[in-house]
Amino acid sequence: MADRLVVLHQGILPPNAEHIEALADTVYATEEELPLLLPGADILLCWHSITPAVAESWPEDPTLAPAWVHVAAAGVDSLLFPALVDNADVVLTNSRGVYDQAIAEYVLGLILALAKDFPGTWEHQRRREWRPRDSERIGGRTALVWGTGPIGRAVARMLRAVGMRVCGAGRTARADDPDFGTVHEGASLRPALADADYVILAAPLTPATRCMVDASILAAMKPGARLVNVGRGGLVDEEPLVKHLADGRLAGAALDVFAQEPLPAASPLWDMPGVIVSPHTAGEVTGWRADLADLFLENLGRRVEGRPLRNVVDKEKGYVRDGTALESC
């Protein structure tokens, strides 16, 4: 008997839906329909990934919970609620690997935009003002990439390729990493922050990383440095960030993710000089939905054939550990 699959969507379905339907008894659910359709399902595909609807619709009876939940995103923080995490019979997978190169390119674009003041150039063009001025080099500048997973590694390789000096920040310090060279943690992190011209956040959002960039970390950053966040908005305490930007201690920031999304119209970040705001689109390049759908389809085929699933998340840690797989679910 085919698995019963519920696809949580927001009006846009996976582009390979007919292939998915050939492998599973598939029903489609909006946020409003999910409480009715989720209980008793074997699989939940969160095609609409950043939503509280899954937690709000999760069956009270653990035997009615799906055996496998897949999220069409790299981040799984919205799914790390106790009833799912504590149920050992529920396997969680994500879309690790889909966004790596796209986000690395986006980070390079943001750094170039900040260093060359492209927003200022575009504003002068809009006003028909001819204002020659100097810009900054990025070659030889130091970038600290905070988050040493696949996205962080792709970012590090991209920035090294254009002549930037790169180091990493992660859970384990080491001096011979193939992508970062030196990886800092704990006591060695603050000196690295004081040396970095750009701090790039590419870490997952977990209880351990929530608001990891707080007032003390921002104060430890090099005067005139810039912050780039393509991880999760919850990594940053935005109130002290606004203060450090307003008083000029930090030269700017490029932010693709925010504590509250969409970013409220009243947020001062919208209008701050030296700040680039984008709507959580760093990984959304032409064909990205097809890539997400193909990854899920591959995993669905693995389940049908009884083979290990890709990208199994350690639900206690909140991310995929290298080499993690599950024989069956």
From TrEMBL:
PROSITE patterns: D_2_HYDROXYACID_DH_3 (PS00671). Gene3D superfamilies: NAD(P)-binding Rossmann-like Domain. Keywords: NAD, Oxidoreductase. Residues 108-282 form the D-isomer specific 2-hydroxyacid dehydrogenase NAD-binding domain. InterPro entries: D-isomer_DH_CS, D-isomer_DH_NAD-bd, NAD(P)-bd_dom_sf. This is Phosphoglycerate dehydrogenase-like enzyme. It comes from Streptomyces pseudovenezuelae. Signal peptide: none annotated. Coiled coil: none annotated. It holds the Pfam family 2-Hacid_dh_C. The keyword Lyase does not apply.
